[in-house]
TrEMBL record:
<protein>
    <submittedName>
        <fullName>ABC transporter substrate-binding protein</fullName>
    </submittedName>
</protein>
<dbReference type="InterPro" id="IPR006311">
    <property type="entry name" value="TAT_signal"/>
</dbReference>
<dbReference type="InterPro" id="IPR014337">
    <property type="entry name" value="Ectoine_EhuB"/>
</dbReference>
<keyword id="KW-0732">Signal</keyword>
<dbReference type="InterPro" id="IPR001638">
    <property type="entry name" value="Solute-binding_3/MltF_N"/>
</dbReference>
<feature type="domain" description="Solute-binding protein family 3/N-terminal">
    <location>
        <begin position="54"/>
        <end position="284"/>
    </location>
</feature>
<dbReference type="Pfam" id="PF00497">
    <property type="entry name" value="SBP_bac_3"/>
</dbReference>
Amino acid sequence: MAEFPNLSRRGFLNGTAAVGGLLVVPGLLTACSKTDSGSATGEGALEKLRKQGFVRVAYANEAPYGYLEGEELKGEAPTLHREIFQALGVDELKPTLSEWDGLIPGLQAGKYDVVSAGMAITPERCGNAIFSEPEFISPTALMVRKGNPKKLTDLDSAKEAGVTIGVMSGAVEGSYAKGAGIPEGKIKTLQKPQDGADAVKGGRIDAFLLTGISLRWLAKTNPDTEVTEAFVPKLDGKEQFSPGGAVFRKGNEDLRDSFNRELKKIVSDRSRYVQLLEPYGFGETEIPPADLRTADLCKG
């Protein structure tokens, strides 16, 4: 099993990681040739994948988004992408492990065809690659002690109850808590997810604030806790969806468009979406709103 999300994953979750999407290595942008989107004879990327029978995907070994368990590639992105590519006539995902920082540079260099790692859609990353429409959103939740003794449901209820909230160091959830009016003295900083779970169980904090996806995964190994229903926090009056998607090399727009057509069929079918991704902590609250579009997210 992969390790639980670390600093680079927190950067993904809050959409502020400077490395995964912003790093441009000299020469990589020019490494893509005509063969990336089609051959000199006009053969498209999807047709090439169909002929070879597999698509090369990159993952960062971060559960529950994309990780290797034994010999099997698991997680939200590989599960969803396998379903989509099989519908497109490409039966196999061939995985390549990459450090988070190297995902987009490796894509630009032609080492793989798709990033299957649950990467956040940000304007900076859109400048270096092309994204699918959102596969999921990352609403926030609270991890509390079993039974939820303070009856917390969201940040407003936490403020009203005067409880102490734990947040990850450097993560955006701290700004959510402050934006909701929770005093700084009631916000405790923790270094990693397990620290948050331990602080909840030990009574040092009343709740741990993180995405519902991550907290539900964390709760699997912390049975003395439970996770509230997810909610979409607001910052400066704007809802914080933190959407993620598949990433393609520039020039492969046709492949991306074919992928999007199949993706739409899944996200439009709530029961199918949940059936596919519930094992990884994704439910109806993670289904992207129909009007949440990558083109708008790329504009910022």
